[in-house]
Write a structure and sequence with these properties.
The chain is α+β, with helices and mostly antiparallel strands. The chain is built from 19 helices and 35 strands. Helix 8 packs across helix 10, helix 9 crosses helix 10 and helix 15 crosses helix 16.
Amino acid sequence: MSQAVVYRVVATAGHVDHGKSTLVKALTGTDPDRLREEQERQMTIDLGFAALPLPSGIIAGIVDVPGHRDFIHNMLAGVGGIDAVLLIIAADEGIMPQTKEHIAILDLLGIANGIIVLTKADMVEDDWLNLVVEEVREQVAGTSLSHFPICITSATTGQGLPELVRTLDTLLGQLPPPPDLGQARLPIDRVFSLRGHGTVVTGTLTGGRLSLGQAVIIQPSGLQARIRSLQTHGRALEVAMPGSRVAANLVGLQKEQVHRGEVLSDGDWLRPTRLFDACVRYLESASVPLEHGDELQLFSGTFDSLVRVRLLEADYMAPGSEQWVQIVCDQAMPICRGDRFILRTASPSATVGGGTVVDSSPVRRHKRFDSRTLSWLGALKDATEEQQVLMRLERNGPAPLEMVARWLDVSLPRARALVRLLIEQGQVSALGPGTASGNQIVAARANWEALSRAARDALHDYHQRYPLRQGMPREELRRILRLRQAVFASVVAQLATDGLLAEDGDRLRLAGWQPQLSADDASRLEAVMARLSAAGAAGLAQSEVVAEAGPELLQAAVAAGRIIRLPDDILISAEAFNSALASLVRLMQERGRATVAEIRDTWASNRRSTLALLSVFDDQGITRRDGDKRVPGRRFPETMS
């Protein structure tokens, strides 16, 4: 069986006219300056792509990104999701302004794998070359680029190119495989249309695989499409693997509906946000402090947006400092926990900082200068996925699986796997009936135990205060526990399963508890029942019974089924109710129909009580009106025991 091809993505970076595109063409034979404007101006305006087969069999997809300041956003798009970078520096010029900015950007993005390539070595003397090497080492010291090897080359003479290829091959061969988390994400850097094929988008695939026929979603628009075909560097694929340059031909969308900067994902796990928490580093090169509420341009992947920065620790950030912030976006951004971003000023146009997303979906805008919030963010930043699940459940209380997935920016299957592991470890509990959907409610074990105690104590206190009542109204317990309806339903189901409480209609009680009548209550109730029995179908006014027995005792008798409420605030005993029904059945069997007056006389009642009782029988389908008479209804009993 042939070994699968390994694809890696490599970006170039560096100052304008330092020979990036020339170097890529010398290595691959492909001219990345593909746009007519680029050919005329001889500078890379948009992202160019070229494939470089390496001796080991790895295919490096080289992204040639611009160096001139006017198109710095293309450079930021090009270095998203890469495996390594080639930092290009012309030996005859050395470190230039955009070189410094690109180094800062690569450092802010945490790019830890790459090679520093000195080009145009044929144009300088060795002494000068040594000075440039020393200057470069000083410039990258203290950054993520400090350990990068330096290769000295000339695209004109071919000097150093074989060594560069070997060094790149060795570097890429040592990298672990790109993670396949089962949640594909393709930041779109190009959109075009091919005759006979339709809309095509390209980008660097991360996080998961894409397959032919797969349904995908474009974020933040939410538009849906299906993949008709896939390619990487001109090669047709059935499955595109994470870490590769991918072109996806989409069915169901016009070219005008998709835009560069959007993200193609394999499901709705990626949810755009307008507010997120982040740790930001403000560059020492920034000319002025960053103040609370300042507006900046944020770049992440291929997306950019105007944002406002809420400083959580101070009123301003001095150059060279770090701080926790909340980013308020001008438009919804398809950004996830762990994503890196860059912050730039519009005037003057400059990179001033960057950071890492720690929480892409905070519940609200944080209170500033709050030590608990700052401690929470610090703990969240360094936590594993399992730890984050537990932390968030402990902080927010029971939540559905789909919310856990949202918190972590992971797919529902991934969230389910994380929760299952925590359940096996005894740190999380599943509440209510298990489901395969995202509606399964889960809770941190400590929280669940506290919640169970709170429910038990609330019901116990209620029973002590109202010993005659059947139980606490469900809504009252929900308000005490401060739970959302969906969560509360699962909590009640689990408490019932655990044998802690029992459900009785819309009321809840401790398992095994029954209303308790004192001797005085029992005596008063029997007196009322005697009066109701004597009143028969005529019953008594509710006000009379309340005056004699009290509302609590009356409610207990109603809940126990001894007293029945009729419309118009009339009460009759259950015995009188059943007797009236039996006599009504006999009357209907004899006559087939009867007037209200005939039924009243049969019951030895009065017109008001008769109408109230008949309305109940009508509602139950036992009788129905036919003109001024009553006839048997659809549920009329044929016999009465």
